[in-house]
Amino acid sequence: MKLCAWALTYLLVGSFLWTAPAIADSSSPWRSTHGTALNADIVLEDLVQASVVYLGETHDNPADHQAQLELIQSLHARHDTPIAIALEMFQPPYQVVLDQYLAGAISETELQQRSQYQQRWGFPWEYYAPVLRFAQAQQLPMLALNTPTEITRQVARQGLESLKAGDRQWIPAISEIDLSNAAYRQRIQQVYEAIHQGRSVSGNFDYFFQAQVLWDETMADSIASFLKTHPDYQVIVLVGQGHIAYGDGIPSRVARRMRSSFQQRSILLNPDDEVLEEGEQGAIADYIWIQPEP
Question: Where does the record place the Haem-binding uptake Tiki superfamily ChaN domain (predicted)?
Fold first, then answer.
């Protein structure tokens, strides 16, 4: 099983049951979930129609980050409507810092320091800097998505009910944390047993699962809240591949909050063969992007 590590260690990859248009173009980086080459213009035209586009990355793969920049630039060039970029790499208490950077009030160095980027994320800054620079140059809003690290760790140790009022200001209401998806729970448990062998920070799988779901719910809540107040925008989400697994992570939770018909698309960037094999049980994503050889 292909695993993606974080402070709590996450899971494998997957996604929506959407069928990509099967128009072949062997020179294109685009693939269907079955490996069929797709025409880039047709895929991009489909993506433009979506309210949310997820660019599922492996955090330590530079090629994924280059693809994210290229796709954001391509969608921006095609759009008549504005774009916002949602970032797993930043946490809501530091939204004001992202806004200051966007306005040109602080430098990149100050953005890293004031958002505690190295402590809270830690992957090389230059992986994400080109996207941030493009957003600033084009004045594209950026959304800080991720649950604050302290809160997720607290839930992993002692559960959702242990959170104090000061913590709850940064997350959805506890009543909105949906723990009912049995298939999702089973996949998380496979990761828990494989990595922790029953020994997490609390030794309690229920708390571990609550922390994973809280992570997704917080990001979904931020995306949906933005769309409700900015309905003409498209939100492009930079996030780990596991968070779009079979739509059970972020996408289904955004859809639940929107309560209206709207389109989302998921893209896996450069998934390896092991991930693709795991996805044979169902559609891994709406699209696969394979970085062209230099």
Answer: 44-254
